[in-house]
Specification:
alpha+beta; 3-stranded mixed beta sheet; globular; 52% helix
């Protein structure tokens, strides 16, 4: 990933976190933590990785994020100085779950 894409991704992560936490009307979205954002080289697509505390609500939150993506994108347009706001694709970040699984296995071995 280029430096420009990484910088834009970091900026989008910060702004998306604030939008979801403070402006979202859906209470389920208040539990979402944006962990990482990758931006395509042409700035046409941003993959937004997120995690939630309650793993049982992942499907509900995924649907809520997809439904709110238009609003979130328009809010981003007001906050970020980009000519074209990328399409947002929300992806559940399984890396934390994987890390917890590895930690549990290590505890059993030791």
């Amino acid at each position: 990933m280029s430096v420009k894409s990484e910088r834009i991704g970091n900026n989008l992560q910060k702004e998306l976190s604030e939008i979801i936490r403070f402006e979202a009307r859906d209470e389920d979205l208040k539990e979402v933590t944006i962990t990482y954002v990758t931006v395509a080289g042409d700035l046409g697509l941003a993959k937004v990785y997120y995690n939630v505390l309650n793993k049982d609500k992942v499907a509900i939150i995924q649907k809520a994020l997809n439904n709110a993506s238009g609003y979130i994108r328009s809010s981003l347009a007001k906050r970020v100085d980009l000519r074209h706001i990328p399409e947002l694709r929300f992806i559940y970040d399984e890396s934390i779950d994987y890390g917890e699984k590895i930690e549990k296995i290590l505890e059993e071995v030791i």
